[in-house]
Amino acid sequence: MIYADEEITLEWEPSTIPWLKLFTVEPYREMSDLPEPLRRRIFELLTVIEEEMRDYFHPHKINLASFGNYCPHVHWHIMARYENDSHFPEPMWGERRREGNLELPDFTAFERILRSRLSTLR
Amino acid sequence: MIYADEEITLEWEPSTIPWLKLFTVEPYREMSDLPEPLRRRIFELLTVIEEEMRDYFHPHKINLASFGNYCPHVHWHIMARYENDSHFPEPMWGERRREGNLELPDFTAFERILRSRLSTLR
After folding, report:
1. Among A23, A49, B51, B55, which has the highest number of CB atoms less than 10 A from its own CB?
2. Which CATH superfamily includes the segment(s) B3-120?
3. What's the complex ipTM?
4. Which of A61, A69, A91 is the closest to B61 by Cβ?
5. What pTM was computed for the model?
6. How large is the average pLDDT for residues A74-100?
């Protein structure tokens, strides 16, 4: 768990790419079910997390997705994608294209940066 | 084309499910590159489009995604998913599970509803 408060949690998805999952604590089904302040906060957090991932990991592209087909509890995937990652240019749910051997900076140091940024937003 | 103004366009993705694509007119690469008012507008539109799709199509789940790996120009996919659609519970980019024979209400009538709602938001 990277960050948690009374409204949201942020954790890693185990993967060969930097892949974060942002959940609401309350099990809302869809984004349009959220109270507006929380919905606005989630969208702001997506932007902040994207900015921090771009600064730290220098990905080729950011991918954002909210499905919830297996688990209908609002959660967002924020993924840093590279042209030589395992699935590019397919989404991470698509066809695997290659071994994904990426040289990436330390994930733990990124957690600290992100936790610090998220704490300033409360 | 369902709707267009100086900032955004909204169109159908040809599919067996109701699947819309919302583009920025300017070819921004990532959501965090958008000026804040436009970013806020895009997020508000995602919510409004989701609400209208839920009201009209009564999907089992809404799926939202922004990838841009093939075409790095910010665009969002808004998809109405059903338990018996071609790919459920996989994302539409994942493994096909079955023939998707859905009985859905008229798409053209939905365009009119959506166009009217989007026009009131300008």
Report:
1. A49
2. HIT-like (3.30.428.10)
3. 0.97
4. A69
5. 0.97
6. 97
